[in-house]
Amino acid sequence: MTLHTVENRACVAFGIKDVRQVQQPLIYAPDEQVLVRIARGGICGSDIHYYQHARAGMSILKNPLVLGHEFIGVIDAVPTGSRLKVGQRVAINPSQPCNRCALCLEGKQNVCRSMKFMGSAQFDPHVDGGFCEYVAVTEQQCVPYAEQAADRVMVFAEPLAVAIHAVHQAGDLVGKRVLVTGSGPIGCLVIAAARTAGATEVVATDMSPRCRALALQMGADRAVDPSDESSTAPWGEGGGYFDVCFEASGAPAAIASTATFTRPKGTVVQVGMGPATVEMPLGLLLVKEVKVVGSFRFVDEFATSVRWLESGRIDPLPLVSAEFRQDQVVEALEMAGDKSRAAKVQLVFA
Length: 350
Hints:
Blueprint: E1 4-6, E2 9-15, E3 18-23, E4 26-28, E5 34-42, H1 45-53, E6 55-56, E7 59-60, E8 65-66, E9 71-77, E10 89-92, E11 95-96, H2 102-105, E12 116-117, E13 134-137, E14 142-144, H3 151-154, H4 157-170, E15 177-181, H5 185-196, E16 201-205, H6 209-217, E17 222-224, H7 229-232, E18 242-247, H8 252-261, E19 262-270, H9 282-287, E20 291-294, H10 301-311, E21 320-325, H11 329-336, E22 344-348
Parallel strand pairs: 15-16, 15-18, 16-17, 18-19, 19-20, 21-22
Antiparallel strand pairs: 1-4, 2-3, 2-8, 5-9, 5-13, 5-22, 6-7, 9-10, 10-14, 11-12
């Protein structure tokens, strides 16, 4: 197998509050991999956790890691016979499932136990992400999009795919009343996806006035402070008001509240990563036969997300708080970590 080396400057996490710009040559197989020059990336919660704590959940930083799993770029080189073309703009799916296990063969690649997810320290060696000048990926990871589509829109492909998958987990939303608890970037994208999927009423909650304002911009009919009992108490009357609750905060109190607010035979979709264990009123879930389902990453929804963004079906731009150059990655991470100021912060590479 022939290997090529490309000079590459990357945003690498070494430890707590230690992210640096590093010259890190990229070695790739031109006969098998697509070389992509990165144009833009979006900072996600996991990037912030690696920066602030040198870990994201159970994924602990043991070695230097190139951050980033939300990124797009322009194709620089392709293998012979590829369907892709040099110069094409592509959104890159950071998922690298094994495609051999029973789960993958059943079309459930998002829960593949051997999944290598770019920008993740789950495995050792870690899987480098896309906050760098170049990445080498498979053809299957690249989803081309139209030249006229704006980069600052298309870089939302990965988080919107998470939201669309969550909506799919809920089933048919046409005519349904929906609650979204937690109006951060993912919660707001769930709001937009639920509205697009036909929900007749979408209500959002968040402790932050800034987040509630964003929820309204992203399509919520109402945005409520969950500590305002005068607003939330009626949702529990008559067995529950909402057909579907998307829990996107990960907060234990919000998770528990969904059992009260969901109507009998309704559905709770858990999207937010919370603590390892939480208390849930199982009696309510049981007697109301509420279905509780998890939602983790995405499968085919990544391509759907690209199409929705490309066509303008969903506009994520209200969520963009700031843009920084690649060499300002530390300033970008600092701002992204300040939830009083930022929703989504983007890095510009080209």
